[in-house]
Amino acid sequence: QVLVVGCGNSELSEQMYDMGVCEDIVNIDISDAVIRQMQERSGSKRPKMSYLLMDMLQMDFSDAHFQVVLDKGTLDAILTDEEEATLAKVDKMFAEISRVLQVGGRYLCVSLAQAHVLKKAVEYFCKEGWVVRVHQVASSGDKQQFVLPVFVYVMTKFRKIPGSAPQILEICPEEQDKPMRVESAERLVAAVKDRQHYALLCSQLSKTPCGEQVSLDLCDRESGRPRYTLHVVDSPSVKPSRDNHFAIFIIPQGRETEWLFGTEEGRRQLATSAGFRRLVTVALHREQHYEGMAGIQAELSGKVMELAPPGLPARQQVPFLSVGGDIGVRTVRHCDTSPLSGEYVVEDVKGDGTCYFRRLIFLRNRNVVQSEARLLASVPLPGQKKRRKDKKPSLTEPPATIDRSYLCCEHHKAMVAGLCLLGGPDPLPGAPLAVRVVGLGGGSLPLFVHDYFSQAHVAVVEIDPSMLEVATRWFGFSQGDRMRVHVSDGLDYVAKLAAEAPAQYDAVMFDVDSKDLTVGMSCPPPAFVEKPFLRKVKTILKPEGVFVLNLVCRDARLKESVLATLREVFPLLYTRRIEGEVNEILFCQPSPEGQRDPTELRARAWALEEALRQPGHPWDSSYVLADMLQAVKIL
Known about the structure:
Elements: E1 2-5, H1 12-18, E2 25-29, H2 32-42, E3 50-53, E4 66-72, H3 74-78, H4 84-100, E5 101-111, H5 115-127, E6 131-138, E7 150-156, E8 169-172, E9 180-182, H6 185-205, E10 214-219, E11 226-234, E12 246-250, H7 259-262, H8 264-274, E13 278-284, H9 292-305, E14 320-321, E15 330-338, E16 342-350, E17 356-362, E18 369-374, H10 410-417, E19 433-438, H11 444-452, E20 456-462, H12 465-474, E21 483-487, H13 490-500, E22 505-510, E23 521-523, H14 531-540, E24 541-553, H15 556-569, E25 572-577, E26 583-589, H16 598-611, H17 625-630, E27 633-634
Parallel strand pairs: 1-2, 1-4, 2-3, 4-5, 6-8, 12-13, 12-14, 19-20, 19-22, 20-21, 22-24
Antiparallel strand pairs: 5-7, 6-7, 8-9, 10-11, 11-13, 15-16, 16-17, 17-18, 23-24, 24-26, 25-26, 25-27
Helix pairs in contact: 5-6, 13-14, 14-15
């Protein structure tokens, strides 16, 4: 027995009757004209179906009379606002529906699921102890009538249990049969909102090229965690042809942070080079498992076609592209959580060609490589035979062999290049140096200075003890006579040095990230570039020393303020911009006597380069410090 509330002149009941879904259908409406029209239209053709003039807020039916109450758009029509009178009317409607439904019966509500409508329905029936499920039954597209998707709320009546019974909330998207549990009414409303935004996005993308790049996450059905991150890139400058409308590019695992794949400008260049008017780049997430390129293609084919550009010919083959035709290699070596740095992961990835790299990633900022080191060829590489799952690595086992001669990060190369600014008659690699590094990470920067400047004494300050353990266990870092790590707040430690032991360091290097992602500067934390603290940094430097700062600041106004403060404290300020990155390396000297003209800087850079090529110093041939310092400009 089915009750249709607010039936209007819809054909839904007639279609259900004619298709044999059910015949015992009672339709009610408050419009006398509508009821008469529908009675005449059905008449003797549907003898078991009735149309009654009745107000659903005050129905004449006995309690528990129906197994189903069906509502197609009536709730949407009534709940047009959140005024007190409107909400009271909806409460009365729900109470009457509840009264006439049997236990185990269902209230089916067809709706466009505006946020306030869905929220009201979910909260009311959850409070009554009903099971709440939301089905997406139609999405946007050329074959659909509406741009917005259509939903059906399925509210199943249970006997109300005294006390607090657990809520059962589920959503069942259009593309899958199995419903997914959600933990709260807020999360259910948010999940519906995501699908509405996606439908609007698809509708827009199907009609016009997108001026700005669009990004979205496709999530795993079981866990709800992101599985693919897609960027839609349009290239109007590419001349149209039959076969270049649309393509999908799978970014190899571990390479999503590279400039070509991880920046808007890089993706635009990739799309233009590939020669397609619309390219969708697909990044794979480290928490997920993938069954090769064919598996990804089968999984994504239906979904990516919803992002197709206007004018795509019917039955057009859409190519899936990648680098070298595979999806890359990523092996997670270690996961943990630090009280200071949050969740982090150590992973081995295959780079371009045959090189493999080890990376440290803070998951709060998962698209940024915190530290990176190249693995030597003798290391058991990702993709080879894995350790048995039940055999955990010993805490004392040696780390995989790290290539300590290689600096992966361009900003580390530039920071080392800044040592050319140091005075003194001795060639730098053999000169006695006192170096203070604030920020350990994987330890690549202090290790390199220690290994290739044979008389350098390096002291590192790191606030997070977890990072010392990670650097030691996974990145080949070790302490010794010329390398010490102090676990302390860099601010406090520098202040203590300034008070107790001024003018003792040839170089002070800051490579410390900010834990506060709300600030437009991710390196260093703002407190490290305030004038009183910078004065303390100047105090611990020797007069001919150099302060090297890795600055990562996307806020132009904030960056200008930082530079102005540095100028006030340090008479000499050089800057080195890292091509394709936000990083900018600043070289600050406490004495104007240290200024050198560009010719002298290049000569010192070449001298350092040649010295580091001597036996015992296998300096990588790509490190041409002179070329790096040619780009240095005096502010």
